[in-house]
Amino acid sequence: MSHRKVVFHNRFGITLVGDLYTPKTMKAGEKMRAIALAGPYGAVKEQVSGRYAQELAARGFLTLAFDPSFTGESGGQPRNVTSPDLNTEDFSAAVDYLSNRSDVNPEAIGIVGICGWGGFAINAAAMDPRIKATVTSTMYDMSRVIANGYFDKTKTPEAIRAERKALRKTLSAQRTADYRSGTYKMAGGVITEVKPDTPQFVRDYHDFYQTKLGYHPRSFGSTTGATLSSVLDFTNMPITVYAEEIETPVLMIHGEKAHSRYFSEDLFKRLKGSNKELVIIPGAVHTDLYYKMNVIPFDKITSFFDANLK
Fold first, then answer.
1. What pTM was computed for the model?
2. N or C: which end of the chain has fewer CB within 10 A?
């Protein structure tokens, strides 16, 4: 494949930076099927989405792995802000850019969202009919997990409301403190030290983000975390509320042993129509789908895009 760095912008005027990959088989004047990729939440393109992009480019697609607004090589101040609106917009901005390339067929553009960006991909697919096919891998619904906490099915509605009320109070107070100080408190990245009572899925995150396997200095997952006040938006803005209205094909992929599997299973039940599929990877945990090239079902992803990007 061939690689080049590209720059584009979203509707807020924020400059986004991506890695564009094209297959060596690409012919002069050819209009390619294109795929925009992002994720996981807190990651940069060099960690995960770039792996997917390179493999899919080698399989015949033009691919764009990009850094979200305020993250990595992309613009925006303060650094490491996240937002359900902005991060959904970044996918549509990538579609804007791809649609205007002379080597892309604007009627054959898909997206891949990994981890937290799987939820943003669903939101983008529900909003933007230019997205002709969507893949989510090891999806997180960031609004749900931030607003309700992990494993919310084990909690009563009253407990969830009380927790969310307390969270809103804490984060709103943090906004006041941030404004007063002129700085932004950071939420903290993935833990740097594993203890005997650390849950296994948190160990898995540590083993990716804090070791040579996946550490990157521009990733807020590996370093500071997002600005703490960013979290407030997610408590009141559910990003998958219109998932039932997606009319284009959706492929959801999750690991059998992933702690996060319920996010994909629950959302899949809400999708309408016949062109929807959930693939469960035997034995895989959440982070296996970040980097294990023999576990990520690239044959399935390729056949899905082959069938739906024409």
1. 0.96
2. C
